[in-house]
Design a protein that fits this description.
Layout (H helix, E strand, L loop, with lengths): L5 H9 L7 H12 L5 E2 L10 E3 L4 E6 L19 H24 L3 E6 H6 L1 H13 L3 E4 L6 E3 L1
Parallel strand pairs: 3-4
Antiparallel strand pairs: 1-2, 2-3, 5-6
Helix pairs in contact: 2-5
Length: about 150
């Protein structure tokens, strides 16, 4: 049973953004300050990555821990209410993410997944790590397990 009425739940869910979220804006701002330039939400690429850096052939997904079931994160869990419906939706998100990343790798893109909790804990070092990986071409492919990029 949900703690809110249907109309209140609908109102809350309608306010959740899929693009231009606070974590996304934060990482974009930090990357820009570090001198990296990029494009946003390129629909022609699998998964419509949040940040696209064609110069370095790299893409970044900024994932919310809840919506993308971040493993070993306190927010990456199924809710207690309407568990079956949430499980179906969130697992669908995870499958879609995995398929998009695989397609991007096959197309030759370096892929980075940044988690909301990483940005909350230390946004500056997260941006610096991304800049190092991109500029140093240390990227090969992400580890699909926890979503963190692997230097190659």
């Amino acid at each position: 049973m949900d703690i809110w009425s249907k109309s209140k739940r609908s109102q809350v869910m309608a306010r959740i953004r899929s693009k231009n979220t606070k974590p996304e804006k934060l990482i974009r701002s930090l990357l820009h300050r570090l001198g990296l330039r990029f494009r946003l939400h390129r629909k022609s690429l699998p998964g419509c990555p949040d940040i696209v850096m064609p110069k370095w052939n790299a893409v970044i997904f900024v994932n919310g821990c809840f919506w993308h079931l971040h493993k070993n994160c306190r927010d990456g869990k199924f809710p207690r209410t309407d568990r079956q419906a949430w499980k179906k939706k969130l697992l669908k998100n995870v499958r879609r993410d995995r398929n998009a990343i695989r397609a991007l790798i096959r197309a030759g893109w370096n892929t980075i997944v940044v988690w909301e909790c990483e940005l909350r804990q230390n946004p500056t070092s997260t941006a610096e790590r991304i800049a190092e990986l991109v500029r140093g071409r240390g990227l090969k492919q992400p580890r699909l397990g926890n979503g963190r990029a692997r230097a190659g």
